[in-house]
Amino acid sequence: MSHLLLAEPALAVEPPAPVFGTDGIRGRVGVELTPTLALQLGYSCGHVLEQDRPVLLGRDSRRSSPMLVAALQAGLLAAGREVWDLGLCPTPAVAWLTRRQQAAGGLMISASHNPPADNGIKVFARDGCKLPRRRQRDLEQWLKRSAPPGCHAGGSSHQRHDLLKVYEQGLLAQLESGQRQRLRVILDLCWGAATSCAVSLFERMGAEVTVLHGQPDGNRINVGCGSTALGLLQQAVVDQEADLGIAFDGDADRCLAVDHRGQPVNGDHILYLWGGALDDRGLLPEHRLVITRMANLGFRRAWTARGGALEETPVGDQHVYAAMERTGAALGGEQSGHVLWRQHHAIGDGLMTALQLTQLIATSSCSLATLAGASFRPYPQKLINVRITDQQTRQGWKRNARLQNGIAAAEAAMGQDGRILIRASGTEPLLRVMVEARETTLVDVWCQKLASLAAAELQPS
Question: Domain named Alpha-D-phosphohexomutase alpha/beta/alpha: which ranges (predicted)?
Answer without folding.
Answer: 19-144, 173-262, 266-379
